Structure prediction request, 526 residues.
Amino acid sequence: MIEVAQYLISRRGDMLYWTLQHLQLVGIAMGIAIVVGVALGLILTRVQLLATPVLGAASVIQTIPSIALLGIMIPLLGIGRTPAIVALTLYALLPIIRNTYTGIQQVDPAIVEAGRGMGMSDRQILTMVELPLAVPVIIAGIRTSTVICVGITALVTLIGAGALGTPIITGIQTYNDAEIWAGAAVAAGLALLLDFLLGRCEGALTLKGIKATS
Amino acid sequence: MSKRAGRFTSRTLWSLVAAAACLLSAALGGCGKQSEKIVVGSKNFTEQKILGHMFADLIEAHTDLTVERRVGLQGTLVCFNALKEGDIHLYPEYTGTGLTAILEEPVISDPKEAYAHVKSEFEGRWELTWLEPLGFNNTYTLTMRRDQTEELGIARISDLRDHADELKAGFDHEFMSRPDGYEPLTKAYGFCFRHEPVELDPGLMYRAIADRRVDVIDGFATDGRIPAFDLVILEDDQGFFPPYYAAPLVRQEVLKAHSEVADALNRLAGKIDSAAMAQLNYEVDENHRSPREVALEFLKKRGLVRAGNSST
Prediction:
């Protein structure tokens, strides 16, 4: 434990750099995944025919071991940040697509019908009825994805994209337990912090949603 | 009916247990006769497995002793402790590993001095002896694609001084943090790459250089992927990397009781250079042949065991 603290202090500059790299990669990948995932989820509720193949494809991606996916990326996209972000985005998609789709599917048809009766357009039904009611489920999906994403980002150092995996892998290769623990502890802290912040977002957004429908 | 079937299966089960017990006791009994049996160990990577099988083949071919092969033990410390305890009698070790990992002493860059030092220290401390080195030096190296070295006229690490600013380096995490790794190397040779090297998984490093994503990588001199990907080793003209010459590390009591073991193993002295070892590693890693088969084939080809010799 003391060695871990010593490592964190003596290498604080590097640790900060790796942590920022980590946050940046997670941020970019999650940003893309949220836009693409929510959009895909919505499309699936409108074009039911696509639901099974798209969710199936996202599940298949999820089952590919991350180290294998990173390896496959090298001939296609080279090394460094680009293949890392692509791989992270692919892994983050499934929970977001699935929760968006399910969240909107489970909205009580009677409420949608009531909206239609009030003369709402399709767009108004989506933004004022369905989405607000589905927000807690969608955000739950985003939280799951974020935690997964923070974890997998610890592996992208293997393809030259840096981040908190760097001290972890260095520690494994040079038998330095303190270094492994330092990297792992900061990465775990990051996952908890982001999950907590998204939880707060969920609270704020849900409140607004209820106001909109009531 | 079902009850009878059930009794039948449980009887089969019991007979299986009995058979297993017989086999186990036979195996244990076999291990008990340790006096006349030489146990050869090795670490758990390809090169070590090949060398372990070579040592075993040589002892089988040139002595009357029986040999037990325990190749593929987990890492240096497991092998070394097993040797000290007498669970194995010999295994292949590298002078640099003996010096820095086992004796925990600083690097000696002169290969002969390093060998002489580990030999006397190991004999004095643990009654273990280093037989003649096999010839190759499995140290760290820098490697590049052959076509690029020809194009730029690079053969030695010092040649990188004129080209480092146009080359992209990819090193594994260990090399980036080792005392005989990236930073001390560039300081000793006095060059720096324009960009910080990319840190990569050692396996993916070879893919990256083959795909021209990076131009210079680190690696071990006898790695089978060096011939496989048509890479060339840059000559360490300032002798920066510590020597890692391989030799059989043997318990002295074994050599006292059976001097023929030393004679058998020393037939291999100086017989395997780095290129030959890399080729043998390549046969196993890339062509997926068994280490044992590759080892025996090499010994036969070099006339170190008779071609008719069928070791079992």
Q: What stands out?
A: Chain A touches chain B at residues 70-71, 74-75, 78-80, 157-160, 162, 166, 169-170, 173-174 (CB under 8 Å). Chain A has a mean pLDDT of 91. Residues 177-213 of chain A form the longest helix (37 residues).
